[in-house]
Amino acid sequence: MKKKILAVALSTLMVCTMTAALYACGGEDTGTYTVTYAYSGLGETGTLPTDENKYKKGDEVTLKAANFLDLTNYHFMGWNDGTKTYKVSEKYTMPAKNVTLTAEWQLNGYTVSFSNSRADSSATVVLEDEYQAGAEITLIAKPDNFTDENNRVFSGWYNVQNEQPVYYEVGDTFEIPDHDVTFYAYWKATSITVSFYLDQSINGAKYTTKTYEFDETITLPENPADRTVNGKVYEFAGWYRHDNEDIPFTTATTFSEQEKDYGAISVFAKWNEKIDEQGGGDKQEDTYKIHYALGNKSSRYTEIRSVEYKAGDEVTVITMTDEEIALYGEITRWTYFIISDDGEEEFFYNAGETFTMPARDITLTAVEESNAIPVYFFIDIDATWFDPSQVVEGEEPWLTIIEVEPDGFAGMTLPDINSFELGQYATGYTFAGWFYPDADDNYNTIDVPFNTNYVLNEDHIDDAMGGLYVYAMWTPISAE
């Protein structure tokens, strides 16, 4: 009996000794295991991440990002171990076995929004459902809280396609594209309101306001009284459109279709210095001024010089003096706008060119020429996929923009990545630099480092935005 008990004890000891490499006898698993990443089988393209580390049971694994995977019309959800899908930002607890993590994708769903106007999105309705590309929706009726500050009538919806508005009626069907969609209320006026100002700056006091039906004959307000400024007397010389000081507003004025749609315009008074009976005053009759200025037609001008001519005189465009160049910089090219019902026309003149003086004052504004190329910086490569026509001011998808002259890349200052909100990359990742996503002949992505060694390639410039797109590259921090 004693021999039998001894034999059993020795057998148990031998089993424990033989398995000690894998298990402490009666204890926990001491082996190491691997993590392998796999395609979903849906046909994604790109390179899978790899993990050469060995893990013990219970170790926390930092899941790799899928920066180099792409699947048309899908977005990446995370990695699935057969029981659960884990986001890249989550930690994965290692089991006592080798693990294969399969890419998990979700078919893109796009939102549909309806907004009161493009200028004011405070009143916005977002449909509860998300829609797949190709699905059809029916355009809704106007929400009760949608109103127009100019009391125009709601006439349907429009959205922007290829930088142009496309109009729809309530009840029309619309096929969802492969991006989110916003429809804006289309407000149509039945009359037009004209605001009359005493000065070109419409921030000043309004002289009066008149409303005209579209088929109504225009009647003008009573002329303003003479004004005295710095001891000189000025008399009213007519009303002119605020968007172009060379187009008079008279009883013969007609409104463009764009103005009718908007339902409101502004005009301002022009003033001439009053000539007394003894011929006093600085301005001679039948003479007009050319104002050379900095600025543009939608902002206030900074005048550089003005020159008087009679109507019909030959005008020679000025060459700036050394004193003017010191103050304003050298300007050799000038522009002049004319806006009419037929559209906008712009004329350019170089220093020394000649043209015939019209019977009115005109303003030539400096053409500030720059060859600088805007460079758009994004948080990652996925953020660079956006529709430029859908960008809303204040919600731009890029981190920042810098402008670089074509020969200035070697001296440019790159943005500091730590000055931005890094989101999921704040922990678990190391910034690996800025990159440009180039492509080979087979459209495979080639990541070109974007730094002071970058040499401009004209093919890299995006046609829609006129600039370069670059993005931050991130390297996951490996588990120790």
Brief account:
The chain is mainly beta and 480 residues long.
Please describe the topology of this protein.
Elements: H1 2-18, E1 32-33, E2 35-38, E3 45-46, E4 55-56, E5 60-62, E6 69-70, E7 74-80, E8 85-86, E9 91-93, E10 99-107, E11 112-115, E12 124-126, E13 136-138, E14 153-161, E15 164-168, E16 173-175, E17 181-188, E18 191-197, E19 206-213, E20 227-229, E21 232-241, H2 257-262, E22 264-273, E23 287-294, E24 302-310, E25 314-316, H3 322-328, E26 333-340, E27 343-350, E28 354-356, E29 362-366, E30 373-378, E31 400-404, E32 429-439, E33 445-449, E34 468-476
Parallel strand pairs: 2-10, 11-17, 18-22, 23-29, 30-34
Antiparallel strand pairs: 1-4, 3-6, 5-9, 7-8, 7-10, 11-12, 13-16, 14-15, 14-17, 18-19, 20-21, 21-22, 23-24, 25-28, 26-27, 26-29, 30-31, 32-33, 32-34
Compute the CA-based radius of gyration. 35 Å
What's the overall average pLDDT, rounded?
81
Assembly level: single chain
How do the strands line up in the largest sheet? 12-11-17-14-15
Query: What structural class should be given to the helix and strand makeup?
Result: mainly beta
Number of strands: 34
The termini sit apart by 53 Å
Shape: elongated
Low-confidence stretches: 1-26, 277-283
Main sheet: strands, sense, barrel: 5 strands, mixed
Q: Classify the helix fraction into a percent range.
A: under 10%
Number of contiguous helices: 3
Percent range for β-strand residues: 35-45%
